[in-house]
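Researcher: Predict the fold of ABC transporter substrate-binding protein.
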Amino acid sequence: MPRNTPLTRLAPLFALVTAATLTVAGCSLSGDDSADATQVVVGYQSKTINTVTAGTLLRARGDLEKRLDEVTEKTGKHYKVRWEDYDTGAPITTGMIAGKIDIGSMGDYPLLINGSRADANPATATSVLAVTGSSPRGSLNMVVAKPDSPITSIRDLAGKRVSASVGSAGHGTLLAGLKQAGIDATDVDITNQQPQVGSSALEAGKVDALAQFVAWPGLLVFQNKARLVYDGAQLGVPTLHGTIARNAFTKGHPEVIDAFLKAQLDATKALAADPLAASQTVAKASGLPAEVVYLYNGPGGTDFNPALKPSLIAALNGDKAYLKSIGSFPNPVDLSTFVNDGPLRTAVTETGGDYTALLNRAGGQSGSDSVSGEASGEVWYTGTETKKVSDATALLRLVQSARASGAKITAAYITDPVLGTRWFADHSIWLHDGATYQAFTTDDSARTYQRSHPGAVVVSYDQALTEVKQ
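Model: Structure tokens for ABC transporter substrate-binding protein follow.
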């Protein structure tokens, strides 16, 4: 049985800078191009939906450039911004350590790797400054298999080949899920691949499953190329993506860090005000289908609260064991110094916000005050019209009525009642339970519900639409 590859043998992964990285996206300039302008290099992941407020959406809206223009007006200093787009956090970490990237955004496990590698030398040290997106239960990372695969649970991965980007948030969730299921990670052939390579490998049948971060699982399921077999929310542990910067750059250019965090707040506010419009902007800039982006950016999806909550820091602390599981690291990461919310506190206060209120906000989507009262389902019609409903049965009635009237539906979303994960209605596992219907992300979640509702029976989405009574 092939074994997992130690991280020490995967060093090239962190040094990888493909030709695609050095495209127009990596060389675009904004701001002042004069010789005395301070260059600001931002590493981001255009297709990683939980970093859009510090990446794709931020760049598309021009928020950073606007905030830097304000600095120029006050101080006379000039700046130019270079955006570099990557598939994962690893090359961003490499660039930061080399002093070639100043500010970046990445998932929780990559953040820890960044801290471990960068903080080994005070000259290259970095700090986490804000959260870009989080999930209270861990639904940002998932495992998918081919639609016709016999794999229905993470328990079925023993002896199978699974594609994952080693060192990524998706890989960390895979290892944690295997441990939770009582499976030794060495009993799974984990193949280290970039997301798009792994996606192709899954489609070609070269791997049995794919473990990745958003938006890859949702994208493949939406394209009918995969089926969800493990929802990271089954771990019940918060996951997050965050903004990180080089300490030397923060010390030398505090006004830039302040401008960046204020720009992130601007993008977050815009997303909260109109999630659908923000999703369409991200879709256009990233090349992802708008339906997939809105899956994560819509009501009940990712929480874009930027505050570095104690619960998220505690989750990071619990994830530190992951570093030992994939290789030797020079620094165990001291979160008391690695996490620095001082600049964010200042940015929030100076833009009229209340950082304490953000810390105390109980979850919530897109900057909303609370998850309470949020709709369980949502139907997106043609254009920008959407309608929210309170439960799965109501969603079925809404879709049934729309079909009967000939109305075109772009997408329908429903929230798993067990895990709290927002998912595509037509790709969910549906149960008919008496006079009601319920929808779940995975077979495992549906089985959990059935244990306390023995009368619930599996039905297809189309069958449920046909049977539901108005």
